[in-house]
Amino acid sequence: MKTTTTKQFISESMTQSITNNNPVFIMMLSIAPVLALTNDLALSIIAGINVLVILVVAFLIKRGLLSKVPEQLNIIVNILLVATLVSISELVLQVYDLAMYDAIGIYLPLTAVSGMILTQTNSKALDKDTFKNALIKVATQGISFLVTLILIAIIRSILTTGAVRLFGLQMRVFDVAYSFTLIDSPFGAFLILSLLMALFRNLTNRGAKS
Amino acid sequence: MIEFSNIFEMIIAAVFVSNIILSFYLGIDHQLFIEKKHTMINKRVLVILIVLPLSSMISFVIQQSLLIEIDALGEIVRDLTYFRTITFIVVIILVNYIILGLLSKFFSNQFKNLQNDFKGVLPSTIVLGSVIVITSSVTTLLESVLLSLVVVFGYAFVLNILKFIENQLEMKVVPKSFQGLPLQLIILSIMALIFSGFGG
């Protein structure tokens, strides 16, 4: 019985995170990496996983060790905590794949001030939840961010090159002659995010005030 | 990285070709973008204008003297760049709170309403991102100060044009799903296309 309830809660939380509480399309958080890194699917996946891991670890440390931090110092402690985790992830990525680290560039250190992570670690609503429920909500938000990044990256990749490329594998959708290379530029990044945001709002019936 | 060889190129690069919003996507702050009044936007720009040059200057000095050491042959003797993120963030927090403390002590009435703007700048991508871009683009301390001033000017320039166009569109009928950030992103996309032409 307990397992079913947990499964249901995970499913509901995941649905909420992807639709009504979508961190990019609805809450409009962490727009910079979304615009900058979605021109490459592999970069989007690495950046998304990085945010997910940092989000979960920051939540665990905050909940376990830093729950008694005074209100005035909360934002500074959160930024420093996330910055420390980002530094560690920078080191790991440098060791694992230096080319990928260089390609992500300034957007990896910028995770330290990511609106999405800081919103979750500062959330007072999460403090009222039980540990397990709060952890599920945080993790589903991270997964939702990853899924959104992948979705935008796939759409941009198809429009730019006519194919989806990932770690050497390629799936061609249409001939490269019909591709729209301008989508790879900042113009395309802004335009595609805008159109997807409007489409998503239309589908979920959310207006500008959301 | 913003590339330039003289001050004229620096201005063209930082304001048009490699604008901090249009090329690096920094400072796209939801709270700032929903603000309709130019005065509120310029207040935030004023805070960035105070914090960014100082933070860039101190971060540049720390990077050149502590994080990286290069010997006479041009080889890297010490490379502690993995401390860069945490170091720059500590610098930004300290600069922010020291300025806030000084302003509230000496100009308590005039600067009281800037307190929230100073706190709002801390978790924003504009200061940290700009400091990283500036410190990796310049070679001297003076260049770091000049480039930060030009970067803030470029930021204010794009933000004010964006708000001007948005105010002009207020009378027009915009579909509900495009109101707010989607419409602003479309304006930014057209501006990015126009500004990229300055690159030649």
Brief descriptors of the model:
heterodimer; A: 210 residues; mainly alpha; two-stranded antiparallel ribbon; 9 helices; 2 strands; 4% strand; globular; B: 200 residues; two-stranded antiparallel sheet; 8 helices; 66% helix
Structural description of this entry:
The complex is a heterodimer of chains A (210) and B (200). With 210 residues, chain A is mainly α. Chain A has one domain (20-137, 152-204). Chain A contains nine helices and two strands, in the order H-H-H-H-H-H-H-H-E-E-H. Chain A has a two-stranded antiparallel ribbon with strand order 1-2. In chain A, a hairpin with a 2-residue loop joins strand 1 (163-166) and strand 2 (169-172). Chain A is globular and about 60 Å long. The two termini of chain A are 36 Å apart. The mean pLDDT of chain A is 87. In chain B, a hairpin with a 5-residue loop joins strand 1 (68-70) and strand 2 (76-79). Chain B has a two-stranded antiparallel sheet with strand order 1-2. Chain B has one domain. Chain B contains eight helices and two strands, in the order H-H-H-E-E-H-H-H-H-H. By secondary structure, chain B is mostly helical. Chain B is globular. At the A-B interface, helix 2, helix 4 and helix 9 of A face helix 4, helix 6 and helix 8 of B.
Short description:
Chain A is mostly helical.
How much beta of chain B, percentage-wise?
under 5%
Number of domains of chain A: 1
Overall strand count of chain A: 2
Global Rg of chain A: 18 Å
Distance between the termini of chain B: 18 Å
State the helicity of chain B in percent bands: 55-70%
Biggest interface, chains and residues, is: A-B, 44 and 42 residues
String of helices and strands of chain B: HHHEEHHHHH
| Contiguous runs where pLDDT drops below 50 for at least 5 residues of chain B | none
Q: Assess the beta-strand content of chain A as a share of residues.
A: under 5%
Strand order, biggest sheet of chain A?
1-2
Which structural class should the secondary elements of chain A be placed in? Answer: mainly alpha
How would you characterize the largest beta sheet of chain A? 2 strands, antiparallel
Shape of chain A: globular
- Helix count from the secondary structure assignment of chain B: 8
Largest sheet of chain B: 2 strands, antiparallel
- What is the CA-based Rg of chain B, rounded? 18 Å
Instruction: Give the mean pLDDT of chain A.
Output: 87
